[in-house]
Amino acid sequence: MESRRGFIKGAALTAAALQVGTLGNVFAKSNTNSSAKKGKMKLSFIPYTLELAHVFTLSTSSRTTTPDVLTRIEFGDYVGYGEASMPPYLGESIESVCAFLSKVDLSQFNDPMEMEKILDYIDHISPLDKAAKASVDIALHDLVGKMIGQPWWKIWGYDQEKMPNTSYTIGIDKPEVVRQKTKEAAPYKILKVKLGRDTDKELIETIRSVTDKPICVDVNQGWTDRNFAVEMSHWLAEKGVVFIEQGMPKERIDDNAYLTEHSPIPTFADEAFQRLPDLIKCHGVYNGINIKLMKSTGLREGHRMLELARALDMKVMIGCMTETSCGISAAAQLAPMVDYADLDGNLLIKNDAYSGMKIVDGKVTLNDKPGIGIVPTGSLRFK
Ligand code: MG
After folding, report:
1. For the purposes of burial, counting CB atoms within 10 Å of the CB of 341, is it exposed (0-12), middle (13-18) or buried (19 or more)?
2. Mean pLDDT, the chain, integer
3. Which of 29, 169, 224, 357 has the most crowded Cβ, counting Cβ within 10 A?
4. What separation in Å is there between the alpha carbon of 80 and the centre of ligand 1?
5. pLDDT of residue 58
6. How many angstroms separate the alpha carbon of residue 345 from the centre of ligand 1?
7. What average pLDDT does the segment 342-354 reach?
8. Are 119 and 82 in contact (CB under 8 A)?
9. What is the DSSP string of 274-321?
10. Cα-to-centroid distance, 216 and ligand 1 (Å)
């Protein structure tokens, strides 16, 4: 265990050094411009309820909307956009996010390029509030990317050629609806299915009656017996399922490790993996992690998670909540380096407020716009 810790610490330092090295050069070039820009950063935000195109059903709940808060940071002529999405089961709300953002005072910082200092300050305002923190982190990355004049995937030196296919979620529903949704998902190369009910096999068989595309499953901790979980993993593998996300309750570390050891297909941690230190707990228990910006507090920590997981030879997927194209396009900046992308959150809503990354022929496709590569699609009244 000690040597593993030592290795993780070393890998973290290497990842941090790599990041500073890359960004240092870019910042050095652009500092001339930014220091000439006088002014204060100003954060503003607006509550925004996401309307879902279909009723969204998990093993524990159903809903038709997702509470969300859109953020904006202004600095001189530059404007960066961010977002906090708060599915109810994660414990944040429009009220808690607005209360957090009301405490944020960015006027104490003279230069948005001081991202480490600014985001350390944000992280120390409270112990939780992960989505609220992400909304500031994303807006700051968008702002700084615009000041540099490059999108983050280019600043990090990632290769657009390596973009993964994105999965498209088919919710739990009646067989005829599932068949219809599967047909509607024609442009997507991988389907994602939520499991964790006693009708799981029927649901997979229903999808298999219309397509032989690869499927990934998210059990959302729904399996409670480890022998049943292993049995399911073998059955799912035979049905062309490519991985299992969070099969068993996150607290049951030994049971999840047992499933990983005996499953013919990889396992991923989602609920069990929130912040960067959780990577140490998940290493050896799962084959991979699901990074979501609303859990990682944004791109700064999401990028570190990705680099460190790679150093530990773990698989990585980039996921999302139901979000506008703001959060999704921010997450997509990391996509060239992941094994799987689950970035369909903006496709599941009817009232997207931005246009950004696109899914072209099932693939995550980034653009060359600076920052996180988005433009507002309407007028938003930030306060
Ligand atoms: Mg999940």
Report:
1. buried
2. 89
3. 357
4. 28
5. 61
6. 12
7. 92
8. no
9. -STTHHHHHBTTBSEEEE-HHHHTSHHHHHHHHHHHHHTT-EEEE---
10. 11
- Ligand 1: centre distance to CA 226 (Å): 19
Q: How far is the CA of 197 from the centre of ligand 1 (A)?
A: 15
**What is the model's pTM?**
0.88
> Strand 315-318 to strand 358-360: parallel, antiparallel, or no bridges (unpaired)?
unpaired
Q: How far is the CA of 269 from the centre of ligand 1 (A)?
A: 8
What whole-number distance in Å separates Cα of residue 211 and Cα of residue 150?
40
Burial of 119 (0-12, 13-18, 19+ CB in 10 A): buried
What is the whole-number distance in angstroms between the Cα of residue 296 and the centre of ligand 1? Answer: 14
CA-wise closest residue to 352 among 319, 383, 369, 375: 375
pLDDT of residue 19 exceeding 90: no
Q: Hey, what domains does the chain have and what are their CATH numbers?
A: 26-149 (3.30.390.10), 154-376 (3.20.20.120)
Structure tokens at 68: 């969300």
**Cα 217 to middle of ligand 1, angstroms:** 9
Give 41-63 pLDDT, tens digit per residue. 999 999 999 999 877 766 566 78
Q: Report, in this order, helix, strand and coil percent for the chain, each rounded to 5.
A: 45, 20, 35
Q: Which of 318, 309, 259, 264 is nearest to 282 (CA)?
A: 309
Residue 320: pLDDT above 50?
yes
Comparing C-alpha atoms, which of 374, 368, 329 is closest to residue 354? 374
